[in-house]
Structures are given as C-alpha cells and as structure tokens.
C-alpha cells in the first residue's frame, strides 16, 4: 500500500460552516494558514502557505465549532479536489487543538 499521510499545524483562516452531503454525511471545508521553519539542504528555511482542507463525519462536526483564528493540527491524506480539478486538498481524518 502506498503512503499518503499529511500532518500539518496552522491557523484556521476560515470555514464555510457545517454542511451535509446528499447522503446526510456532515462535511466542512476550511482553509488553513501554515507558518514554520524547516530544514532543507542543511539550512533553516521559513515556510508559509495556505491550503484547503475537507472533513467529513465526526471531525467535520467538531471542527465546525472551532473558531477562525484557532491553532490546530490537521491529520489526514491528500486527494484531488474533484473529478476535473486535480489540485490537492487535505482530507481531515483527525485533528487536535494546539
């Protein structure tokens, strides 16, 4: 089995509020701002980015109550955004407030 695991810390920039799929599954789309220093080629490098994330089920219900600006650790995997959009989005399977 190929590995596909993402674990990233950041600040919740926004979320669209809890929604439900046509099958009734809770879903939440959010944007995370990440800033850190990483080691690359033996040197420290500042890293900043924003990325989109999507949660379903219990993580979606819980994350919907997390206010914008909160610091979180998202754990999950990468998948393309849609059938026609091959850009990645993080699918959240777990999270922690930090």
Main attributes of the structure:
OB fold (Dihydrolipoamide Acetyltransferase, E2P), 1 helix, five-stranded mixed barrel, globular, 6 strands, about 100 residues, mainly beta
Provide the low-confidence segments as ranges.
Answer: none
The CATH class is identified as: Mainly Beta
What sort of overall outline do the alpha carbons produce when their principal axes are compared?
A: globular
Strand content: over 45%
CATH topology value:
OB fold (Dihydrolipoamide Acetyltransferase, E2P)
Estimate nothing, just give the exact number of structural domains: 1
Topology diagram in text:
Blueprint: E1 6-15, E2 19-20, E3 26-40, E4 43-56, H1 58-63, E5 71-80, E6 88-97
Parallel strand pairs: 4-6
Antiparallel strand pairs: 1-3, 1-5, 2-3, 3-4, 5-6
Structure description:
This protein has 98 residues and is mainly beta. It has one domain: OB fold (Dihydrolipoamide Acetyltransferase, E2P). Helix content is 6%, strand content 62%. It has a 5-stranded mixed β-barrel with strand order 1-3-4-6-5. The longest helix is centred in the middle third of the chain and has 6 residues, at 58-63. It is globular and about 50 Å long.
Give the gist of this structure.
This protein has one helix at residues 58-63, and strands spanning 6-15, 19-20, 26-40, 43-56, 71-80, 88-97.
């Amino acid at each position: 089995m190929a590995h596909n695991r993402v674990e990233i810390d950041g600040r919740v920039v926004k979320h669209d509020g809890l929604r439900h799929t046509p099958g009734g599954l809770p879903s939440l789309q959010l944007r995370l701002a990440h800033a850190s220093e990483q080691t690359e080629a033996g040197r420290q490098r500042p890293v900043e980015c924003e990325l989109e994330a999507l949660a379903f089920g219990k993580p979606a219900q819980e994350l919907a109550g997390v206010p914008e600006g909160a610091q979180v650790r998202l754990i999950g995997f990468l998948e393309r955004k849609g059938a026609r959009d091959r850009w990645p989005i993080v699918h959240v399977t777990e999270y922690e407030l930090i």
